[in-house]
């Protein structure tokens, strides 16, 4: 049999090491994604890393390093199409970009493992997990800092309807309540809706918003005297 004639125990063990390391590192990356209930979780990241390792290892076995370089280029573009499948547009918001980037990085980990660069694959895994965990508080802290001037891109707004007599008081209350919930306010506008109705709208400068907290702010405002309706919505980018 051709298999017996071509079987090399040392090469087979090398392949096993590549597959195993890619599987372990991909599982570690995916475990963090699974914990946060992302679209591409544990199994997806593990399989992406394992698949990339398999293709690169196969290319090394058949054609050497030159063939592996060509295969890695195809892996990069192929995983790009896979990542596009987890990106979703929800109104003015785009979700899944970080998940797609994580899949792309998982493929890089697998490619390193397939090329027998196991130590480099492990180091890259640590950086990927750090990027998805340690940078999260920093991102939220930066996004909650008010931006001075007209350069802010507001993504959310909170509005309420009232009458002329309560407009001034409720405007201040709206701003105070949002600031207390750590939602920096970029702008507040009062609009006449006719028949004595005034709409107060506060645009938030933060692009990272906990919608459950916004719900609580709206529920509080609806209980205030003079408020006929309160809601929040995603604002369009300017």
Q: How is this structure best described in words?
A:
The structure is a single chain. The chain has two domains: 2-133, no CATH class; 156-234, ACT domain (Alpha-Beta Plaits). The protein has nine helices and six strands. It has helices spanning 2-6, 9-35, 42-63, 65-84, 97-114, 118-133, 135-143, 167-180, 211-222; strands at 88-90, 93-95, 156-163, 185-194, 197-204, 229-234. The strands form two sheets. The chain has a four-stranded antiparallel sheet, covered by helices on one side. Strands 1-2 form a two-stranded antiparallel ribbon. β1 and β2 form a beta hairpin. The longest helix has 27 residues, at 9-35. The N and C termini lie far apart (68 Å). The model is unreliable at 148-154 (pLDDT under 50). The chain crosses the membrane at residues 12-30, 42-62, 68-88. Residues 156-232 form the MgtC-like C-terminal domain. GO terms for molecular function: methyltransferase activity. Its main location: membrane.
